[in-house]
């Protein structure tokens, strides 16, 4: 059994990466997780954010080196590129900026945080995005497929990171259909390719293995389509496949509702390809899973998996989730728990957490919703930890804010003056969370004894009707006027 646990602010210190999709996140040197690039609200990113695995610290390194534009250090902004780590280096190739496909090639030395643009030799791959790549041993990189702006690709390139020479691999026999948005994962001597979007647009669910990548084996390069027993994943692209132990973990991605309907379906299921039994199986998980998404990243950190970012057709995510095995210290952690920041605060923080948790349990009982904190999945987030809330404040009043109290008040004043039709979709998440914060604090301020101070402002059982909603995506359009009405009464106190 594995458990989904949304990361708590106390799991990390430092500056978390901002929301994005189409980024890359790779483990470099077994001690660092490096997040690069991506896309948010039509803005392409070029930043680097690093997670120090030992110190549980996120930071933005000061990088040096050559740049591509206007004195910028490192690669230009991009998304849907490939990134592969070899030793202490992260190699970047291609991707997209706006409608332009990129074909430049970069390396980041993470020991000195220096970018270098590489001039490579041999059979140079064409510019592309949505390709897939993996390392071969500790020296070479293999890249497959992608989209060059005109056609889907099915070529295979191998890069020697010592000589910086590319070689297009000549493969005979049956070839997989061209594709992009797929995954390519090196498993011992074979490259496994799964899914993606193919020529003409269909989403695929086929699995292929490529041999002939290991020189010592003297094998003729060739593809084999694998049809494994078990519960195979549905066709998808924009998913992740992460290697951990004796299996590969596939998560998320998106498909379509069929040739006639053509609507997108986003996934949040976990499917395992068991390398020992050579079959597919569903990974049993407990806890509320993260919202469905594609073009996210999923990284193996010890015995845990760390999910970050992604896109669901409407929203770009910046949340962090752990997928942990049974027995992990955080496996059954309540979403409301905040782990102590340091040893001095441990006893005080634990008592505060227990007090608030029990009070909220009582509140849930009185509102006739789930009394189990862990099963409800509701997480009351402080304003200063609600990045969307703070970003909205910044957008409303820019640099005029001099303290956090003014930021919070500015957003609440904005919603108090708003008509339901003027509330933007991107505001619904912060609005719902602030509504839940206000209800919780009204109740806790009253010692958890009764709900009279809150209930006196509403009529009957309809009060607090949105307290149990975990995500704004669960709201209907006709809920927005009612939510805003309740919010205005709550925030006017």
TrEMBL record:
<dbReference type="InterPro" id="IPR006652">
    <property type="entry name" value="Kelch_1"/>
</dbReference>
<dbReference type="Pfam" id="PF24681">
    <property type="entry name" value="Kelch_KLHDC2_KLHL20_DRC7"/>
</dbReference>
<keyword id="KW-0677">Repeat</keyword>
<feature type="compositionally biased region" description="Basic and acidic residues">
    <location>
        <begin position="342"/>
        <end position="354"/>
    </location>
</feature>
<dbReference type="InterPro" id="IPR015915">
    <property type="entry name" value="Kelch-typ_b-propeller"/>
</dbReference>
<feature type="region of interest" description="Disordered">
    <location>
        <begin position="337"/>
        <end position="356"/>
    </location>
</feature>
<dbReference type="InterPro" id="IPR052124">
    <property type="entry name" value="Rab9_kelch_effector"/>
</dbReference>
<protein>
    <recommendedName>
        <fullName>Galactose oxidase/kelch repeat superfamily protein</fullName>
    </recommendedName>
</protein>
<keyword id="KW-0880">Kelch repeat</keyword>
